């Protein structure tokens, strides 16, 4: 009896040591739990775009998430800003609850999709708020569809950092569907935590959602979208086009962003990259947020929301 109890305790202890072993697996990414009612818009090329639409106002903020993310990443911003603005946050094609048909992942592809959504919903006075890759998509939109973009809010945006052809090839070779698909829970957690200076407790859902997604029938399509998005960012850079952006632009960076500049290829200070964007985008203002990482809109939501309100007055 004594040894049986010891054995049972060993099994229990071992199961508790397996990180996130009790997470309920998803059958489909459409089962992800979102904080607001999800709507869907049919677009060209059999794209079904999932989005939330909250609040009202003379201006509409269209929130575009970053690489590997989804629309709930904006919930702290939507909740506050919907009192003054119409707030629409989307799942990009291949992500979250949007359709998973394979696509190029090019920045212009995403810009075209967002422009079509603006037309379908008859949106006016549109402010594009983009985080990380979403920022690069926003800048691509501002360049290609200047009549549809009134202002830009760029939060820790990709696109200011310059990469050589060799560095671009490194990205293409490293980021594969297999690599994304087989990322273990421990690494998923580490990857998410790298986005923060001090990871908030309420960011845990991003980790558990990402782990739960691995069993979904459409998970491999998500992995493909992530991979293609990396290709899109390096294949359609905007760093040499920043001086052509005419829209008033708010640039926000966490001072302690561990992802920009790229720590493996460049290193250095985030402020130096932020300064490049500020100098090249003529009608821009820069806000550096102290004790804040790459996911500024979530880690320091109050500071970001206040900066947005001040900018849009």
Q: What are the salient characteristics of this protein?
A:
single chain; 313 residues; Rossmann fold; eight-stranded mixed beta sheet; 40% helix; 15% strand; disordered N terminus
Structural overview:
- The protein has 12 helices and 8 strands.
- Mean pLDDT is 94; it is low at 1-17.
- The protein has helices at residues 2-17, 75-81, 107-120, 133-144, 165-174, 177-181, 185-193, 204-212, 219-235, 270-280, 296-299, 301-312, and strands at 39-43, 47-54, 60-64, 86-90, 126-131, 151-155, 249-254, 284-289.
- The longest helix has 17 residues, at 219-235.
- The chain has an 8-stranded mixed sheet with strand order 1-2-4-3-5-6-7-8, sandwiched between helices.
- α3 packs across α4 (133-144) and α7 packs antiparallel against α8.
- The protein is an alpha/beta fold and 313 residues long.
- The chain has one domain: Rossmann fold.
- Helix content is 40%, strand content 15%.
C-alpha termini separation:
73 Å
- Main β-sheet: number of strands, strand sense, barrel status? 8 strands, mixed
Which fold name fills CATH's third level, the topology?
A: Rossmann fold
Order of helices and strands: HEEEHEHEHEHHHHHEHEHH
In brief:
By secondary structure, the protein is an alpha/beta fold.
Secondary-structure map with pairings?
Elements: H1 2-17, E1 39-43, E2 47-54, E3 60-64, H2 75-81, E4 86-90, H3 107-120, E5 126-131, H4 133-144, E6 151-155, H5 165-174, H6 177-181, H7 185-193, H8 204-212, H9 219-235, E7 249-254, H10 270-280, E8 284-289, H11 296-299, H12 301-312
Parallel strand pairs: 3-4, 3-5, 5-6, 6-7, 7-8
Antiparallel strand pairs: 1-2, 2-4
Helix pairs in contact: 2-12, 3-4, 7-8
